[in-house]
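Lab meeting, item 3. Inverse folding demo.
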């Protein structure tokens, strides 16, 4: 490992990456990016690893969320603010349920490249390369738009830098004040479920009132005014990742400077492939998506490669099996982790196994299947005595209509109203917050079971 180089992935089989036709332009972009400042720093990555370690031990809980794919077109301060805000609200609800700190990690400031199920797309007899995210090509169905363009990496870098700048300002500049955050975005409706949420929301408000009345005023209390907010993305486009990889001068370790946490997707986790090779060599916390085809054998090899020193917080396993399938797949992975004595953080992504095509033709997800997968994830961990360490959502603070269901009941007919995603359907602010309440209920139950078990 001591001899790992940031370009070693180039000697491994690569999948899901574009074939840039203009190699000269590609090299120019790589050279330029290599000179730019990293977006994140080694100390931050270490701090996140410690926070995730706590989540692995049940002393914290991870909330990871954001767009499926960030877009150049929809980039705006308002949408960053809205997603940030709803994540803080969700975190507050989860903290209330779990009674432990919530580690907040956005799918933001770098989540631009997408794996696709097919390399090309055919419409009306015309075949063009698939859209692979704004860092690679464009969604429009023309040969020019679909040709991978390396210059887009520079725009992605600029957008990521601006996004991080705003997130850092929000995190420390008073916007994250708990007394502001709990101006709930949900707008509770008249249903039994909404009644329960209102009840929990009122208890949170009462608690905050008490804190204020007790003299712990937020303008004096730093901790209530600022938060740690981290960034993450799938490390898919390795030319971009390599160009932003830097050696940390204090530890001599390599850092992926593109984001605090990076993850390996379900389609790029080949143990001998390029993506695993790159991620194995950097010090950042690494996520590994685990889908129905993840075998115990692969997981064993991957854990050894990605976390050779078995550090808690280094490796997060992000389970994404689909509602109804968790019981079939998660136990074999839990058993493997137990047999190996491996330290991992178990996280549930209830989005990617639950994508369907609606009758109206839209790619969508139903809030109730998303919730069901979360519940199955908790139940399986309870049955095995292992620790559910967090959740991973595709969501936005905007009022989109991309997933169906929720207290405001988005229907299949509503999907066309505000369907803005360039990729997978996201939960809107209200659906995301609603799910946070439901996850909080699971966490309350879990805590009660543990307390009862401990007498
Ligand atoms: C994603 O997180 O957007 C994604 C493509 O996930 P997966 O690799 O799990 O399919
Ligand atoms: Co997605």
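The presenter then showed the designed sequence:
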């Amino acid at each position: 490992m001591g001899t790992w180089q940031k370009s070693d992935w180039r000697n491994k089989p690569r999948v899901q990456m574009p074939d840039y036709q203009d190699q000269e332009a590609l090299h120019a972009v790589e050279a330029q990016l290599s000179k730019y400042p990293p977006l994140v720093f080694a100390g931050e990555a270490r701090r996140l690893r410690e926070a995730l370690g706590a989540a692995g031990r049940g002393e914290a809980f991870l909330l990871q969320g954001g767009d499926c794919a960030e877009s150049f077109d929809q980039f705006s301060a308002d949408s960053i603010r809205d997603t940030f805000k709803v994540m803080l609200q969700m975190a507050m609800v989860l903290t209330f349920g779990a009674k432990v700190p919530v580690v907040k990690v956005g799918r933001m400031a770098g989540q631009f490249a997408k794996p696709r199920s097919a390399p090309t797309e055919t419409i009306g007899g015309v075949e063009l390369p698939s859209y692979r995210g704004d860092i690679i090509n464009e969604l429009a169905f023309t040969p020019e738009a679909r040709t991978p363009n390396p210059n887009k990496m520079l725009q992605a870098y600029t957008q990521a830098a601006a996004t991080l700048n705003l997130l850092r300002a929000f995190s420390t500049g008073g916007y994250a004040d708990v007394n502001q955050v709990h101006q709930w975005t949900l707008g509770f409706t008249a249903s039994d479920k909404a009644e329960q949420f209102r009840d929990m929301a009122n208890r949170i408000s009462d608690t905050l009132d008490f804190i204020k009345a007790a003299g712990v005023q937020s303008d004096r209390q730093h901790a209530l005014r600022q938060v740690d907010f981290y960034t993450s993305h799938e490390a898919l486009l390795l030319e971009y990742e390599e160009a932003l990889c830097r050696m940390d001068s204090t530890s001599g370790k390599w850092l992926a400077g593109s984001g605090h946490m990076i993850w390996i997707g379900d389609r790029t986790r080949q143990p001998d492939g390029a993506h695993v090779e790159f991620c194995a060599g950097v010090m950042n916390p690494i996520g590994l998506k685990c889908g129905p085809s993840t075998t115990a054998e692969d997981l064993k090899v991957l854990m050894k490669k990605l976390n050779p020193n078995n550090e808690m917080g280094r490796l997060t396993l992000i389970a994404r099996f689909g509602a109804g399938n968790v019981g079939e797949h998660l136990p074999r992975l839990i058993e493997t982790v137990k047999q190996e004595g491996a330290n991992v953080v178990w996280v549930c992504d209830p989005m990617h196994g639950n994508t369907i095509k609606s009758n109206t033709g839209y790619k969508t997800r139903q809030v109730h299947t998303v919730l069901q997968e979360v519940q199955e994830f908790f139940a399986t961990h309870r049955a095995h005595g292992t620790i559910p360490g967090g959740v991973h959502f595709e969501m936005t603070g905007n009022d989109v209509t991309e997933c169906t269901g929720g207290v405001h009941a988005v229907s299949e007919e509503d999907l066309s109203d505000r369907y803005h995603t360039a990729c997978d359907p996201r939960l809107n602010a209200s659906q995301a917050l609603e799910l946070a309440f439901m996850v909080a209920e699971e966490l309350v139950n879990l805590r009660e079971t543990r307390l009862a078990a401990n007498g």
